Amino acid sequence: MADNNISGSESDKELKFFSEIVTDHRSVLWTIQNFSLCPTDVDEYLQSPEFTTRSSSITTWTVRVYPKGQTKCNSIGKVGLFLHRSFSETEVHHVRYKMCLKDVYGRDRYVVQSEQLFRGNGTSWGRASVIDRDLLLSPKRDELLPNDTLRVYCEITVGCIDGKASTEGTKRVNSLTTPPIACLDSLSSNFESLYESQRWCDFTLQTAERVFPVHKIILAARSTVFAAMFEHDMQEQHNDTALILDIESSILDDMLRYIYSGTVQMLTFKKALGLYASADKYNLDELKTKCKKFMIDQISVDNLCDVATTADLHSDLELKEAARGFFAKNASQILATNSWEELLVDRPHTASQLLEIIASGYTNKG
């Protein structure tokens, strides 16, 4: 009878599996001339020439720019930027990507970066709202669109698993080595994409002009005010809708984007004023601090009255001290502005507090 037993030396031999991430890296600079004249409508895109990567198989990619936004992402009037997988024989790719606009000095502007799994051909990842189209086309942003030429930069690292079995060599454990993941950037981008997609929403915020589908669990995790709204037996709980009539739609959109992604893009003084008040209302302390620092840095003769009013309305001592200090140095110019005349009528108490600084200064001098 044949002996089917395995000898001790053979049975002791350990079967080892090694997995390796096979990667390829590509970078592309795409120049689009006469960008403002591109004949596209909402939901239509410009597509770059194809470029390829080679990991386990050849894969073709393109970059897509949506010059006028997308209806499904509620981004009409925004410029969107996406990485698109055109074709590959490999089902799944793990991709780390970075896309941005290059300004006239070669600097990266409005960066979109993340790590995603591209499953199947025709998959796209990116951001639907990179920059307002009107802002991009305005003369103030000429460094982004010199001679009506837009430059889009994209770099990607593509990985897939190549598995091999071996019974040779010294003992090793089965391992899978992946490139380090930019967790926070990826998380921020993923959650902002969730907000833009409006998928799986279970609550609605409504202003006079617009409806915002949202996810209660995310709002509750970020804001104690929203958490209380959802936890207690309020009317909003039964209707799954909350009316918000004291915040402009654009400001609410920016606040929700911050709640989801932790970032604020293209902060202006007017936006900072609105976001500061909204952040104070919904206990978003980090956003409130960010807006306050921006206002203090941008304080001027023309907006001093707005800063002083905001400081009074929200009892913000730091902001109030910044306003008082600036007023003390620039009182003569501020008193000659239309905003000061409006402050005397609308907020006489705030105006009188500022005038006390002048009186105190004269007393000290005398």
TrEMBL record:
One of its GO terms (biological process) is protein catabolic process. Residues 25-156 form the MATH domain. Gene3D superfamilies: 1.25.40.420, Apoptosis, Tumor Necrosis Factor Receptor Associated Protein 2, Chain A, Potassium Channel Kv1.1, Chain A. It comes from the Eukaryota. InterPro entries: BTB/POZ_dom, MATH/TRAF_dom, SKP1/BTB/POZ_sf, TRAF-like. SUPFAM superfamilies: POZ domain (SSF54695), TRAF domain-like (SSF49599). Residues 201-268 form the BTB domain. PANTHER family: SPECKLE-TYPE POZ PROTEIN. This is Speckle-type POZ protein.
